[in-house]
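User: My instructor asked us to take a sequence, write out its structure as tokens, and then describe one feature of it. I'm not sure where to start. Here is the sequence I was given:
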Amino acid sequence: MYKQIQILAPAKINLSLKILNKRKDGYHNIASVFRKIKLYDEIFMEVKSAPVFSCKITGNFDFPEKENLIYKAAELYSSYIQRSICFTISCKKNIPEGSGLGGGSSDAAAILKAVNILMNNLCGESELMALACKLGSDIPFFIDKSNMALVTGRGEEIVRIPQILNNYWLVLVFPGFIISSSDAYQKFDLLQDSSQYTDFNAKTMYEQLSLSPEFWDYTNDFEKIITKEYPLYTMIKEQMVHLNTLFYSLTGSGSAYFGIFSNQSAAETASDSLSLSLPIQTHIKHCPL
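Assistant: Let's start with the prediction itself. The structure tokens for your sequence are:
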């Protein structure tokens, strides 16, 4: 057996993110509207039969290979089907690490789906979902075929939302540093007691999506933590207001911030303006929503 495949792993944004409570297993229950966006990591993978499992990864990563979710996904799949596979994987990272855009989770999901194709679909979708849940909280969303979903539980409960929000454009602001999700949750917990966690209404979340983005009342519970610790976000939000952005928010626990614009021209103008007004270490991208 010797097979190869090229795949794209999309980023995501959180249009809304509510932290509901801390679970006994240490995770948090959330309610969040996830949306895949047209920013991708590019992955090339070769697999062949081998006497023992192995996985060689090349790419612009800043951490050890065995800590990479790509490696863990390949190892988990090989173990689950009880076949030793030799993986050779190259990944071009276009989604910044530690940005809240789900790049690592999307890469892992892409590996599970791609190797399953190469292995003639030995696993059904429910089995891939179960493997994804073992790997990480956001990974099931990237296994799912939907572009948008209401995600609850610790990230494994997915309710698909019909395709909407077409023709809008995003401007993504990367502030030049990463934010650890686990650290952000710890800081959030320190500010809470059992009565201060937020609640959510699924119907209200759905109903808002029928409105134009400038009328959304979505929030991200991490903003109260991140904005306080990093004054740069106040500057970013002020610029978003100045640019008449339809909607803007932190994604995930950060560090990326995004604004939604009505068309490509407005997004390009905003990108140019933000590039001139924000500190030099800040990176700006724009792409279709």
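For the description part of your assignment, you could build on this observation: The chain has a mean pLDDT of 93. Try explaining in your own words what that tells you about the chain.
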